[in-house]
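User: Could you go from structure to sequence for me? I need the amino acid at each position, not a summary. Structure tokens:
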């Protein structure tokens, strides 16, 4: 409840009707206490009821501020009672009786007025805005609660420069910072009240340094957002909008854009209870990316050269520069030159400037000691020894067991070629093309893997050249695709001595370790000699470092398991061995006509002891080891070979109807690359190029047998005859 006081000023003038003495005086004040159902916001009307000696003398109701004076005739000595009623928003509040005895006067003049408490009955429905930015448009809608506001008139009292009020909408563009007092006048009926508050004007956040507006697709982007303005020390920054995957940590922006285009960015800046936003865009262009990765290996005290090849928009006019290069490393245009003086791994960074775009690419170069030749091969005493080639592998081995002999001893790597050995030889020979990380075997001492047969041939030739030996392999053209070598028309040179993989027969003889068994370990001891464990003996993911297990009788490690080993020759499934001395494999082409390399020994992931790999393929489950014969291999000991280009029936019989022409094309091969011709015996069919052609008659009905041979055009060497069977219907 609240107190509202009504001051009744009772002014009495005494007048003697016979002209006697006139007297006057203040008769008193009465303060009335109002009670009611609720507190009154603003009273609206007043009712005065006066009784004299119990009888109503007057009963008036008027708007609150329209009362002026009230004249009453009151008899001498009468009892006067005054009641007052206030009406506000449907409530009636009354004083109760206020009674007193009139003195001896002839006329009572009542002057009635309202005295109210300081409260105006006004309140903010929503507090007005108390923060603004200098030189930026400010607007606010003033929302006030209280009676009579539907018809109230709002106006500003001595507003700051430029501030305007239209209805209840406040508009302003502050021109300076500071705290600005604001006073609002609210006129209702004949009453005027005021409300006051202050607006703090601060400087809006602005860029201290302009954010980066360019980026390159698929290259890491980062920026430190630097703002200036009041309260930014404790401000909170957050992203409202950004590119896919963009993150903000503190004031550091990180992103790896995957697509080109223009990406809008919106930043929220929270200070105190105030939030601002800043917006900009980042344009993402393609590149730069490595067109070919830079070289990553070098050798101490040996000249190092590389050409940095970078692709991306605007690279024709790009400017390249090194960022903090090691001593002596020079970049001229895109040509890199260096003669390193110390071993170690050196991180490198090249800056790429394209117009307003500044990007960088990083890599590292590992400097090793100069390449050294690797020795320590094991002598395999094979001269004059016979064994059943293909026995002990199983019925599905793909080799018909055949008694063969080897003509000479040979030296063999005691372990599979390691990555360290392979890298050192290849990097010395092909420094601009070979990338060490492309090949497998990351663990120290691991066998090399993920190499194709062309890589094996190049390694063996490089090792032969370093040892002043003849190179075994020839080819017409060498190309590198993603750092993987590809050769055209790979073949062997006759009558030379150099490093090469073992033939399949040499590998199988060495694997026996001087034993008659292909698996020369004691019963139940396989795990000590062969790593067939998918997780590896030491839990390393399958492949163990070389020589982790026991050697065989010749001192050879890991002939079974770990990684399968590529051998010289070509995989053919189910063919008899054509040679009985120094066999070079059962053939070079399979039925489909694609060259496949035999793989021997199985791997950590497969117990199959004889499989194959396409000559251009590579896998993490296959590696190799090299051999060096004691003397040059005689040309005549390696025969040409041939197979039909299309597969006959399951019993190796071709079928034709009498009177119909039959053409059977053959695929011919020679490891030495000599040109070959076909010859057929037995009458009937004739030779047309590399095909056998025949049109049988009715007299030929039945099963007919012929022999087809490949003949070397220069040396006259011949292949083992192919038994051709044709059934005429």
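Assistant: Here is the amino acid at each position, in order:
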């Amino acid at each position: 409840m609240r107190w509202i006081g009504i001051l009744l000023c009772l002014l009495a003038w005494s007048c003697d009707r016979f002209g006697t003495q006139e007297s006057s005086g203040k008769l008193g004040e009465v303060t009335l206490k109002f009670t009611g159902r609720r507190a009154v916001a603003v009273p609206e009307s007043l009712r005065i009821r006066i009784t004299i000696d119990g009888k109503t003398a007057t009963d008036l109701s008027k708007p609150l501020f329209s009362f002026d004076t009230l004249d009453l005739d009151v008899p001498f000595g009468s009892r006067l009672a005054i009641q007052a009623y206030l009406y506000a928003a449907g409530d009636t509040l009354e004083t109760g009786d206020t009674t007193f005895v009139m003195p001896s006067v002839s006329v009572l003049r009542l002057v009635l007025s309202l005295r109210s408490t300081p409260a105006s009955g006004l309140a903010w429905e929503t507090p007005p805005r108390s923060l603004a930015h200098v030189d930026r448009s400010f607007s606010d809608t003033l929302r006030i609660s209280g009676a009579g506001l539907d018809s109230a008139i709002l106006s500003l009292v001595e507003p700051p420069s430029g501030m305007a009020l239209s209805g209840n909408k406040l508009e302003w563009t502050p021109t300076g910072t500071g705290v600005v007092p604001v006073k609002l006048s609210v006129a209702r009926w004949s009453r005027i009240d005021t409300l006051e508050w202050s607006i703090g004007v601060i400087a809006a956040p602005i860029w201290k340094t302009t954010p980066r507006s360019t980026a390159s697709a698929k290259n890491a982007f980062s920026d430190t957002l630097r703002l200036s303005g009041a309260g930014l020390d404790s401000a909170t920054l957050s992203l409202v909008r950004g590119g896919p995957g963009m993150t903000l940590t503190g004031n550091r922006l990180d992103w790896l854009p995957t697509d080109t285009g223009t990406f809008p960015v919106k930043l929220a800046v929270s200070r105190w209870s105030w939030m601002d936003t800043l917006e900009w865009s980042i344009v993402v262009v393609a590149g730069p990316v490595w067109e070919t990765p830079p070289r990553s290996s070098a050798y101490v005290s040996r000249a190092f050269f590389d050409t940095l090849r970078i692709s991306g928009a605007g690279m024709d006019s790009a400017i390249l520069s090194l960022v903090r290069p090691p001593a002596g490393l020079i970049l001229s245009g895109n040509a890199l030159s260096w003669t390193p003086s110390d071993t170690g791994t050196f991180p490198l960074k090249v800056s790429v400037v394209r117009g307003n775009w500044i990007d960088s690419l990083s890599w590292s170069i590992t400097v090793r000691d100069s390449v050294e030749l690797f020795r320590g091969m094991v002598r395999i005493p094979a001269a004059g020894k016979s064994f059943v080639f293909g026995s002990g592998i199983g019925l599905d081995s793909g080799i018909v067991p055949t008694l063969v002999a080897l003509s000479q001893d040979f030296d063999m790597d005691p372990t599979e070629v390691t990555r360290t050995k392979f890298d050192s030889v290849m990097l010395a020979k092909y420094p601009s093309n070979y990338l060490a990380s492309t090949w497998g075997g990351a663990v120290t001492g691991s066998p090399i893997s993920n190499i194709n047969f062309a890589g094996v041939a190049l390694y063996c030739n490089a090792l032969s050249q370093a040892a002043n030996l003849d190179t075994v392999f020839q080819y017409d053209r060498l190309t590198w695709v993603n750092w993987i070598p590809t050769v055209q028309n790979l073949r062997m040179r006759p009558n030379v001595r150099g490093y090469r993989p073992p033939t399949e027969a040499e590998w199988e003889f060495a694997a026996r370790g001087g034993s008659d068994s292909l698996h020369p370990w004691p019963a139940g001891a396989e795990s000590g000699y062969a790593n067939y464990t998918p997780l590896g003996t030491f839990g390393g993911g399958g492949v163990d470092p070389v020589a982790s297990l026991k050697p065989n009788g010749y001192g050879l490690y890991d002939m079974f398991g770990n990684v399968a080993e590529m051998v010289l020759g070509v995989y053919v499934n189910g063919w008899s061995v054509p040679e009985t001395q120094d066999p070079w494999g059962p053939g070079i082409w399979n039925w489909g006509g694609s060259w496949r390399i035999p793989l021997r020994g199985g791997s950590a992931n497969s117990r199959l002891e004889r499989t194959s790999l396409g000559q251009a393929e590579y896998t993490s489950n296959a590696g190799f080891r090299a051999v060096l014969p004691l003397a040059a291999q005689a040309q005549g000991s390696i025969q040409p070979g041939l197979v039909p280009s299309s597969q006959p029936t399951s019993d190796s019989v071709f079928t034709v109807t009498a009177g119909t022409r039959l053409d059977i094309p053959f695929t011919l091969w020679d490891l030495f690359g000599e040109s070959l011709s076909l010859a057929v015996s037995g009458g009937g069919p004739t030779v047309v190029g590399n095909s056998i052609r025949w049109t049988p008659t009715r007299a030929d009905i039945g099963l007919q047998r012929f022999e087809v041979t490949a003949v070397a055009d220069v040396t006259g060497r011949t292949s083992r005859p192919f038994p051709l069977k044709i059934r005429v219907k």
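One structural detail worth keeping in mind: The mean pLDDT is 78.
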